[in-house]
Fold this sequence. Notes:
By secondary structure, the protein is an alpha+beta fold. The protein has helices at about 35-40, 45-55, 65-70, 135-145, 165-170, 205-210, 215-230, 245-260, 265-285, 330-345, 355-360, and strands spanning about 30-35, 75-85, 90-100, 110-115, 130, 150-160, 175-180, 185, 190, 200, 235-240, 290-295, 300-310, 315-320, 350, 370-375. The strands form three sheets. Strands 1, 2, 3, 4, 5, 6, 7 and 16 form an eight-stranded mixed sheet that branches. Strand 13 (about 300-310) and strand 14 form a beta hairpin. Helix 4 runs parallel beside helix 5 (about 165-170) and helix 8 runs antiparallel to helix 9 (about 265-285).
Amino acid sequence: MKQHTPMHLSEPFAGPAAVQPSAGSSIDLTVSSFATVEDLQELQSEWEYLSSRDGDSGLYLSFPWMSRLLKANHGRWRVYTVRTDDSGRRLVCLFPATVEPQSGDDGSDLGDRLGAAGRLTLSDRTGFLCDPDYSEEGPAALARQLAREHWGRISLRYEPTGIRSRAFAGAFDKARFRVNWKDHFINNGQTNYLITPTIDLPDSFETYLASHLGTQTRRSMRRAIRKHLESGECRVTIADDRTLEKDLGILADIWCSQWSAEYDDKALTRSVRRHRRYYLMAHELDAFRLSILWRGDTPLGAQACVIDRLHGDLIAKQGARVLSETLPVGNLLLLSEARWAIEAGLRRFDLGHGDAAYKYSLGASEKVTHYFSIRRRSGARG
Length: 382
């Protein structure tokens, strides 16, 4: 297994890169925005077509996901659109944004704070939906328009491509705007939360075990599968409409017990409620899996995932387990999900934010998301 060294995003992104013209940049682009559900519905077919062309956007920028999220958060969002300035008026870039008014201590208007609308819930990816021919010029055109508008701060976290975030940030005049590329660490700086280790899935589960796991890990996992699952000692169940409420409760109970020493009851309750809203929205879209490992009638652990069928991804969201010296609860659940994802024809298993060592032991490679903020320099005006 490779030696893993946490990275700081400030290293590769010491400053925004220059925007290179893309294949579609010979056509002028125009930018507009809307903030009503009626306009959102009118854009559905174009949004869905653009999503089908964008191999980097995924579930969290899809119309079914985003429309539900925006409708549930009236008055807190704005969608920016970038179109070709020709007879076709083709939609080539979308940026769903949160809008948060800011004021000074004296009540003065400091301009809106703009962020990624996906973070109205627990979306793991944010950013720009783009036609692949406009992956740089679309975000850059949006930036040039925003540079002329009144706002206080733009902050974007978990943008997955790097190309789009650099194109957007690089289009702002450095003399007038300050771009700050940020890190995001948790666990006292031990875990880089901008990294999402991801397994590229082969055609069969046996191939996965043979090609992705180290010799020692492979042997121990095969032994655990035989001893605990194939023997019938333990079993894995998947939540359905009938069991969803009960199974969400099991996940919450184990998770709260696992983290009770780190967080107070108020914080745990708030997190459980927020995750529940997120899971129920995913369930409405047939994009939610919740697996539970049982020994007899006792639940030992749970793993929540979301499914991006359009782009072939299974995304691990929240895992919880009862500590055991003899049973690798978390790994058994993740291997069970990997087997299902392979059999379902998915291409990748995203193990979620954070570069924890166990993810690499399961054959994951490093994927990086990006985080930046933009502010006007003192005295600069929009």
